[in-house]
Amino acid sequence: MSRGDTGGGPRATAELWQVAVATLDGNWEHDHTVPSRTLYPHQWSWDSAFIAIGWAHVRPERAWRELESLFRAQWADGRVPHIVFNPALRGAAYFPGPEFWNSSIADGAPDAATSGLVQPPVHALAAWRAYRRFPSDAARAALGRLYPRLVAQQRYLATCRDVGGGGLACLVHPWESGLDNSPAWDAPLAAVPADAAVMRAYRRQDTARVDAAHRPTDLDYARYLAIVASYRDGRYRDEALAGRHPFLVECPLVNAARGVAEHALASIAEVVGADPGPHRERAARITAALVRRLYDPATGTFQPRDLRTDRLIPARTVLGLAPLILPDLPRRQAGTVVVEACSARFGLARRMHRPLPSHDRTAPDFEPLRYWRGPSWMNINWLLRQGLLSHGRPELAEGLRNSMIELVARAGCHEYFHPDTGAGLGSPAFGWTAALLLDVLAD
Questions:
Q1: Per the residue annotation, which of 238, 250, 415, 439 is the catalytic one?
Q2: Given its phi and psi angles, is residue 48 left (phi above 0), alpha (psi -120 to 50 degrees) or beta?
Q3: Alpha-carbon dihedral sign for residues 418, 188, 296, 158
Q4: Fewer CB in a 10 Å sphere around the end CB: N or C, the chain?
Q5: Per-residue pLDDT tens for 296-306?
Q6: Taking 80 as the threshold, does the pLDDT of residue 215 lie above it?
C-alpha cells in the first residue's frame, strides 16, 4: 500500500497510519462508527460518509456496512437524517436527543429514532471512492443496493427542498450545512425569536465535555431549538416551508455536494447497469444554478442566499470556496475562488505554514477557538483539496495535504484545530479526522 511521506520519514508515516486506524477501531459500534465516544455517541450522516472513505483503505467491508447502516434509516421521502440514534444509549447521552426530535410523528419516518434534518449529501462520492479503492464483487453488490437510495436522497433535495424555485436545495436549519455555528448564519439567525432563558429547561452535553468558550452560545442554542421546534411541530413536512419556517437558506456547500453526488452517481450508474445520462444532466443544471444564484462577481466568491430576504449573505466563510469541488465549475468562477482561497482571508499557498480556517481571518468576528467560526477542519480541507486537484492546481493541493498531515502529527486526531497554532480542539479521537488522514496518507 502506497502511503505519503509526512516529512518525518516512513516511520512517522507508519505511526500516523496506526493512530488513525486505532481511532476508527475505537469508535466502531457494531455496524457504524461514532464520530466521538465522548461528544457524539450516535451515528451522524456526513461523518459516516467521510469515515467510509477511510475504512475503504483498511477494512473495505466496514465502509459498506457504514453506509448501508445509515441508509437503513432513510425516510420514505428520501431524506437521510443527520442523526440516527443508538437505542442502547440513554436519552441524556446527547442533547437534543430522540425525545426532543420525536421523529415518529412524521409520515414516512423509519422505525429507528432519528433527527428530521439532513446534512451535505457527500455519500455518493464516498460510495464511489470506496468502490474505486477496492472494486470487488461484494463492493459491486453493495453499490447496487445503495444506488436507488442515493438517487432517492438526491430526488428529495431537488424537489422537496427547492423552496426558492431556482434549482437549489434549501436548508431549514444551520445544522444541515454541517458548519453549524458559521458566521454565515448570524444574519438569518438574528431574525429567529428565542430567549437564552429557554436553555435553563435543558442540559447541554457538549459544554460538559469541552470548553464552553469553544462552543455555540446558549442564545445560539435557543435559536437552534426554536427552529427545530417549528419544523417538528409541522411534522417535518416541507410543503409549507416558504410560508412559515423561520430559517430558509440556499447553501453553496450543500448544493455543490449535490452536484458532485450527481457526477459520482453517473459513474456508479455505469457499474450497476443504469443510465448515467440523467445524472450528468442534473449535475450541469446544479452547477448552473449555483453560479446563477449564489456567485457574487463583486467578491469573486459564492455566498449563501437568505430566502426570507432574497439577499446574499455577505460573510466571507469557507462556504464560499466549496463550489470548487464541482469538476464542471466554469473556469472564471474556479479562478476567482482560488484567488479568494489564496488571499489573506484564508491563506492557501504552495507551502502551507498554517491550515485553512473556516472563516475569514481578517474579519472582526473571526474566532480561532470557537466551533466553525475560525478553526480548521479536516473534512473541509479534504473537500477543497479534491477541488484543487480537479481544477489543475496540484501544487496548492499538495500544500493543503501537507498541512492536514502536520495537524494530526502535532495534535492527534482532534475534531478541529486552531488555525494558527494547530492546537487540537473539540473532541479527541475524532472519526472523520482519522479516516481522511488515512486517505491523504494513501494518496
A1: 415
A2: alpha
A3: positive
A4: N
A5: 999 999 999 99
A6: no
> Model confidence over 227-246: pLDDT tens digits?
999 999 999 999 989 978 99
Unique residue bearing C-alpha cell 409549507: 240
**Active site annotation includes 439:** no
Specify whether 180 is catalytic.
yes
Where does the pLDDT of residue 373 fall: very low under 50, low under 70, confident under 90, or very high at 90 and above? very high
Q: Which of 251, 176, 204 is nearest to 92 (CA)?
A: 204
Q: Of 68, 180, 296, 420, which is the active-site residue?
A: 180
Asked if 125 and 146 count as a contact pair (C-beta separation under 8 A), the reply is no
Q: Per-residue pLDDT tens for 79-91?
A: 999 999 999 997 6
**What's the half-sphere exposure (Cβ side, CA atoms, 13 Å) at 393?**
25
Q: How far apart are CA 421 and CA 276, in angstroms?
A: 45
The dihedrals phi and psi of 437, each to the nearest 5 degrees, come to -60, -45
Average pLDDT score over residue span 256-284: 98
Query: Domain extents for the chain?
Result: 11-338
